[in-house]
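> agent: user asked for a holo structure of the chain below bound to adenosine-5'-triphosphate. Plan: (1) validate sequence alphabet, (2) canonicalize SMILES, (3) run complex prediction with ligand conditioning, (4) return tokens. Step 1... ok. Step 2... ok. Step 3 dispatched.
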Amino acid sequence: MKILDMPPFAPVLMESTRAMGYSLESAVADIIDNSIAANASNIDIQFSPYDAVPFISILDNGDGMTKEQINDAMRYGSQSSLNIRDSKDLGRFGLGLKTASLSQCRCLTVITKQGRRIEARRWDLDEIYEKGTWALLSLNSEEIHAIPQFQTQLKSLKSGTLVLWEKLDRMLNGAKATDKLMSKQMEYVREHLALVFHRYLAGEPGITKLTIQMNGLKIEPKDPFLIGRSTVFQADEKFMIEGYPVEVSSFMLPHVSNLTKKEKAALGGTEGLTKDQGFYIYRNKRLLVWGTWFRMHRKDELSKLARIRVDVPNALDHLWTLDIRKSTAVPPDVIKSNLARIVDRISEGSKRAWTFRGKREISDNGSHLWSKTKIRDGVVYNLNREHVLLQLLEETLNQEQKKLLENYLRLAEGNLPLNQLYVDLNNEEQVNVRKEKDAEREAIETVETILANISDSPMRDAQIRLIMQTDPFCNYRNIVDMLAKELDS
Ligand SMILES: Nc1ncnc2c1ncn2[C@@H]1O[C@H](COP(=O)(O)OP(=O)(O)OP(=O)(O)O)[C@@H](O)[C@H]1O
Ligand SMILES: [Mg+2]
């Protein structure tokens, strides 16, 4: 038996790998992964596809590369996917720089700088076709200095790397070169980066905070969990797989009617909420896949507010069936069985957010304005007859007036405009919109009235304590503080 060395034919292989299925935004994200792995804190993206010489460039202020490193970096399969990677490395396959770039352009130039040392390499598909070999171009100093993007962008940095895409056939092919198309594509890229790198953009312990600019405009992080506004509906969990931690946090977004217009738009409206519910898998804090229950749960109306953050380290890559674009991943059974437990509890959690939207997490001992009772045929909502304000009012009424009031309350309860409310909520109307300030002012006025009414009451202290726990007063810090002072005096 003989062994034949059968290297791939460069032009054909390179052309084929262009069809891996990268979108423009996932290709740009793949380049930024490399910048993050190289400890960059600043990334500057330039889109100039309709200039005389159209280009897209991605500049970072990371560590840069030595001559040997850039040679390796340009090779297809620069590092084995089986290697153990630094725990901060976002790479896996040794391909992204080449495959992501050449999926969008026919000419990739990488220029890197470490102090005074500057190196540049280029894959030009047209050149490869002509030579028929893996002809990597190495640019000399004069050629590097003749590149305008080097002059304007990388030259002034101490260290860093500039990735330059030219011959943008994919982007420009067939398209009428209108500004509209370009701004649309830039918008996709902006939104994608704002989401997948949101934790880097916002900064958190253990990672270098990142700034990304696109044509001079800073990209703001897009937090899919609305942290601070949403409810953590069960305690964070951590489980160990092969000695590595997998961490899970479960968020319930605020009820749709409690979202501001801006928040709702950012979440993609009702459609976006339903579509994007589910797990959000982060690999080294970089969002990998999102908006899926991995077939453990149906994307239904009730769970549409639930979003579960799962943090996995890159050391567990071999379990996840990661693809080269790093845009799909399938959780292994060990992880699935742990996640299944959490999924089971979601329906319960989201039901609660729908029924007692927003209030209950603050004080559940407090007395609610409405009470809900389960009966055989469904549920009944009644105004809580124990509510402090109602009790006070009743004290001032004679029997006849009390009866009239009770009749009125029953009438209101029995005629809630439920169908209309349902339609409004589904149409994303904000129901009972009130400015937060107005609602607070009204609540303060009510408390003041109550206080005036109970000033001589022997039960005054107990009543004040009750108001402090009562809906909606318990939701306002100012009111609770005011009542606490009242108790002290
Ligand atoms: N901006 C950069 N700064 C410093 N080094 C870089 C940069 N971009 C790429 N490299 C080096 O080039 C190597 C190859 O990058 P490439 O994206 O092709 O593969 P990878 O990141 O190792 O794996 P993956 O295919 O999963 O992205 C990297 O491992 C890194 O060492
Ligand atoms: Mg990479």
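> agent: step 4 complete. Summary for user: Residues 231-355 form a domain with the Ribosomal Protein S5; domain 2 fold (CATH 3.30.230). Residues 333-355 form the longest helix (23 residues).
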